[in-house]
User: Fold these one by one.
Assistant:
Number 1:
Amino acid sequence: MYAFDFERPTTLADAVAALSKDEAQALGGGQTLIPTLKQRLASPSALVSLTGIADMKGICTSDDGALCIGGGTTHATVAREAADSFPALSDLAGNIGDPAVRNRGTIGGSLANNDPAACYPSAALATAATLVTNSRSIGADDYFQGMFTTALEEGEIVTEVRFPIPEKAAYMKFEQPASRFAMVGVFMAKYTDGVRVAVTGASEEGVFRWTEAETALSANFSGDSLSGVSLSGEGMITDLHGSGDYRAHLVGVMTRRAVAAAR
Amino acid sequence: MPKDSGIGAPSKRREDVRFLTGAGNYTDDINVHGQAYVHFLRSDVAHGTINSINTDAAAAMSGVIRIFTGVDFEGVGGLPCGWQVTDRFGEAMQEPGHPVLAQGKVRHVGDPIAAIVADSLEEARNAAEAIELDITELPAVVDMKAALEDGATKVHDDLTSNLCYDWGFVEDNRDAVDDAIKNAAHVTTLELVNQRLVANPMEPRVAVGDYSRANDESTLYTTSQNPHVIRLLMGAFVLGIPEHKLRVVAPDVGGGFGTKIFHYAEEAFCTFAAKACNRPVKWTASRSEAFMSDAHGRDHVTKIELALDVDNNFTALRTETYANMGAYLSTFAPSVPTWLHGTLMAGNYKTPLIYVNVKAVFTNTVPVDAYRGAGRPEATFQLERVVDKAARELGVDPIALRRQNFITEFPYATPVAVEYDTGDYEATMVKLEEIADISGFAARRAESEKHGKLRGFGVNCYIEACGIAPSNLVGQLGARAGLYDAATVRVNATGSISVMVGAHSHGQGHETSFPQVVAEMLGIDEGMIDIVHGDSSKIPFGMGTYGSRSIAVCGSAMVRATEKIIAKAKKIAAHLLEAAEADIELKDGQFSVAGTDKSVAWGDVTLAAYVPHNYPLEDIEPGLEETAFYDPANFTYPAGAYACEVEVDPETGQVTVDRFVAADDFGNIINPMIVSGQVHGGLAQGIGQALLENCAYDENGQLLSASYMDYAMPRADDVPFYEVDHSAQTPCTHNPLGVKGCGEAGAIGSPPTIINAVIDALHSGGYDVTHIDMPASPSRVWAAMNAVK
């Protein structure tokens, strides 16, 4: 780890100010950033911890019925507190990493990092969530822009995520055997006006919507409706753990299972 | 009723109190006053010529004490290889040099190029980034068969090729085996890979070198399974330090699995640098360094052919194996694919003709050496896979085919040069059948199918050679060391006992099981006895722990030393009791005169030995301390039968191990709880190999599985609750305890069991898959199913 300055502001305004300095880096739960620093793969001048900002923590329901989760809320908190209001999201959060990861890692950190195998991006995209930052609101369809790439500007902080709660939803994850990140993760969310399906882990472009499946499921919400729909292995990740074709196949399997498990 | 102490008692592991409460003393816990830290700058290319190393800027940086490169070690020996294999033509293997720091070339990713000694680790790492390296990358040699083609790039320019040796065993059987296969009623052929593994002990390797100018003595604290072997190799062959000036300490060690047997460059470096810098020098491997510098295991590519007659009797077996040595010869690497592998190819079967060919190959990869089982898992995997494939081809029950070919009479001389002293393969198979509830399998399969899963049953037998090894025999086979062990039993004045042993405990529970033996022999409480291990200045010259040898070899030495103690104690007791020595009996810690009520207690005798006021000084010396060395007459041959049931998800290829039954014959057992634990651990590692672990390189020699993000270790939820049994016991005939060893069995017997079950599951779903290479990961199982759809 290279030397860096460390700040832990208690207000959003102070955090934004601290992040305006050259080469300053926001630190959420640190579950990606700290290992990166330890391997000397990053050398920020300053780390600005967001864990001291009380306003960024916690879960509530908005007037329009959306579940609003502070950007600094840990996975463990989401798993616990969203269990009744949004069980699919609670399941997702409760199966990220291990207890240590879940008690440090935050939803804002995960979405800002946009790891192509992270779980949360699929939930945000499948629910057309709104990502609220210190300066604006961004719709999930505009937010995710490819592996480790988002609409966030330099120094912009995800302060809250607003999830429209679906009628039914499920998250199905097939784990990569070593890391247990999602090799394929499918978040399926059914609303009155249609079904959205978002896939993480599989694509070289990061999280994506499987629109053919959405169309089929919106017309007929059953696993059978997917029988004529398939995904190409083209553009899917091929690595030690599986080919693009295998991942494409798993997307179909996990989507069917998500439909069956939806509640 | 199980006993509550002594031999056969499930005594609780006393060492676990300190391990589980954070009170262990591991090498990284050792900090020597004034110590400096070393960081190794390692090659990030697999193969290259070092044109220059400019350390000027780095040497001037804050905290840097000295930077070493290969030139600093030109006057020093290289890391020695402890075993010389002779090839099929009677020639010695090709043996390249293995410098402590790279000289002229780098030969694998992770090869150490420079070592930066600094006041702190961070300063050493900062300086490493300022070293200017000029390396011309060369084509990497990765694939073993390509490495042996004419014109292949050579890993070592001074060798004639990348072939270490071409070994035939038994060479005289070659033609007869060829004929038998040509004329067989049926031949089953299988090509397979036994993949490369990383041992991954929980504790990474650590070395602390210290030098005393006051008495010109060097001390190395290191994570080793055999401190005396390290002292001998490093002192005599690398650094030229006489034994009496070199102390090697291996304190608590957090798992070895073979990978901590070997002498490593970092140990020699820290010892050397401590003197050169006149500062203690400490190195602790990061997990990333462990992946690219700990000796790897396995890595065989094999073709095996099994010949059977019309009655399904095995008539001949022929194998051809390519064994990866990596870039250099690690300490015992040449012995693993040969003497620890070819000699096991008979397995549990009376196959009359066997020929084993092994071509050991140099590649630009991390050196490969012994890993839990070492050669025996490779032998068992190919044999038991080909037997299972034969059963399927012939349409016979896999258990019946095995049973029909079992060796049933002992001693049994195999066609691969070893003699099994004892065994009863039928007994372990019967145990297995009882526990596995084979008759209930059909119902369990039907239940799985209801849930869309394919259930498979796999069975497997194994034999292994443990208690390594008769020194005169291994000497003929090329070992450059003896393989006896030693123990000193030091009885203290008040009767407590310290036993100094050459064996080293790094998870095996010796601190509990060894005292059980002495307690049994003397009839005293186990708590009066401690063992001392892991410090060359305290223990006799023993060879350490590997090859499931500790209780069979070192335990036998301890028995011999304790017998000497008893003999002397009886003389003392006879004097105290004014009786004839021949009339003295020892029972429950009391020496008594046969047929009388006269007795003295153990403590009275030990006190007399050290306060010899009333003592036969004219006949015997005071004190009560004896040493014995024990050299085994033969290997020991644990054996067993394993079964498992797996479920395969046909939609994803995911394999789940639902049940695992292990019926082992370990001979006599000192502590059944520890034995079960050893089997459990071995099974977890074997299941890891079968389903999860894979050390993979790309074609450029880059390590693809260089961290836990890509190297899949088994976790608790990957393994089932095991059902283990070791009640079928045929005691070893040639050691005093009748013990055989249990440390490696689980890792040897489980991989083929799992793969046999996966193949069975797939067949039940109509997938005619004949083999899947390990690990049978979801993607591989899915691909295999697709290939036959």
Note: Chain A touches chain B at residues 1, 39-40, 174, 177-179, 181, 239-243, 246, 249-250, 253 (CB under 8 Å).
Number 2:
Amino acid sequence: MTACRYDSGGGRMKYVTEYRDAARAQALAATIRAEAAPGGAYAFMEFCGGHTHAISRYGIEDLLPPDIRMIHGPGCPVCVLPVGRIDAAIALARNPRVTLCTYADLMRVPASRGNSLQKAKAAGADIRMVYSTLDALRIAAAEPAREVVFFAIGFETTTPPTAIAVQRAARDGLANFSVFCNHVLTPVAMRAILATDAADSVHLDGFVGPAHVSTVIGTEPYRAVAAEFRKPVVVAGFEPLDVMQAVLLLVRQVNEGRCEVENQYIRAVTEAGNLRAQAAVAEVFDLRDRFEWRGLGWVPHSALRLRSEFSRFDAEIRFALETPSASDNPACECAAILRGKKRPAECRLFGTACTPETPMGSCMVSSEGACAATWSYGRFRQPARLAS
Amino acid sequence: MTSRRLDIRTGRVDLSHGAGGRAMAQLIADIFHAEFNNEFLAQGNDQAAFDVPGGRMVMTTDGYVVSPLFFPGGDIGSLAVHGTINDIAMAGARPLHLTASFFLEEGFPFADLARIAASMGRASREAGVPIVAGDTKVVERGKADGVFISTAGIGLVPPGLFLSGNQARPGDAVLLSGPIGDHGVAIMSCRENLSFDTAILSDSAALHGLVATMVTRAGRGLRLMRDPTRGGLAATLNEIAQQSGVGVLLSEASIPVRPQVAAACELLGLDPLNVANEGRLVAIAAPDAVTPLLEAMRAHPLGRDAARIGEVVADSDRFVQMTTTFGGGRIVDWLAGEQLPRIC
């Protein structure tokens, strides 16, 4: 069929389509097959949900030899947020003076007692979906009678925009704006996965390191992790060819006994990262003593809070928020899946009680969640059942 | 009527315009009758009366709550006419008459209402399908969002034609009338909190002309048609797979997507397969009808970029699958949750 005037296949995009090229993928796959030692049983964790999504969407595992196993990591901001923090956000949103601004991904995350932000909104809470922290600032400026709270979540990628919003609120004297801060730190989480007790740990031969996070923090912070735990880290972009090239670099490191930090994503990531973003984050935030992660439990020094000089913008202080621990659905395996201990299809709820329409656990909510990615692209099916 | 004409330039809807009194009569006369202007409305009755031709008729109803009301390539008025006509046309039917009810929010500017009515009148005249009856209600400020429109439509199915979602059979071809995602991206580009610059216009269009040429050329080789609106192509194909008890196998490389739409979707993290269309149709056709159908579609302005995008296969699991441009295969699932509310 040649009559179509469009390049199709999702449309051609400069600097994007090149990284989805089928011929190059086949060539890379052949190189990986040739270099992976037979029976080598390589286990690599892609830390980020962005990589998990790419692996599922493009069927990268179909192109890798069976000796290479990709293990999904906890790098999905929505997935690692514990139920207690969602419960706290819902409690906050029920305050009639409060307008809670949130990224859309969070709306359907299951909270305690079958609740969710979406249900709270339907029941009358003023919850608004925003695409940027600046939208929340605009709402606060436009509606001075409302207490506008931004529900801040995410790894180092989304932290700088929250920092900028707080800086602007301080500069503009915005008295009705605050942040419910849930920002967490990637290198600490990698360390937590590797440091887990042997009985509960998962064997890993290396990491596909974060793409967007690394544009902010650079490659330097992974060095200590790689050296201390003797695990190679290859920072990689989110396009499918990026992931495949990172796998090849990891195979080579393992074969050669190296445990280095390599940067596959040189078109966006430097060793030092984005210094201006880091400065903004350092000005606004400092470390929490500890923070609860879904899957990883309480991890010391793994999350950020607003510095005391910005405490008037800290919703936890402003509204005396309590964030008690709350337990997940006991049958939900999100915790084990986030640690790489289990695959989505090994959860009893997967695809039966728990689907993207009726998520029981957070991993089924965000498109970056391991369960949602696995389910939506049919990756739990027998390979023979999938078109190719 | 002796009272002064409505101040369309600066006036606003108030509760009296829905109260059944003179103000309401004036609103209807000055805005709706003026723009819709046809013999049925001119009779001034509570209903439209017309002769019924013989044969199978189809009837449909639809609601429109799109935000914003005016978007690149259309507005809620033209969308309401096109959407209702398309629901009729997907049965292969010739649309005959439409009705429209307006739910107006107190304070809504007459100027905007007149603009919407003019656009509806124009869409209806261009399509040759008159709006023969209507209703107007006004609700208090805050109880609606400017204007909501509810429509109904009837149409006549040509003799011998029985298109239905359960008619797809293994071996049939999946045809698409043009590039996907234009409407959804056009709407997103002008959302208050999302605005970005794009030259993309909504594809909103009445498809009954295209359908008529397809029906004429393909006859019984045309199994079914559907317009991939909310939920996009992915939802439409999953519906067909469910109804017909079959699988669908798509080829990603053959699905037309404008580069600007692809880029916008990339930026927003959306899949064009899930993005809404308002002027496209999917047709399932028997193998021997494919060539004449594609010729007929490409000869029509609204089907110029028609493509064969996949085939119907036997599959007890009723999956929609796709071979990707990257060289792998994947499931094309329904979209979970709301990608973007109030797109139509």
Note: Residues 1-10 of chain A have pLDDT under 50 and may be disordered.
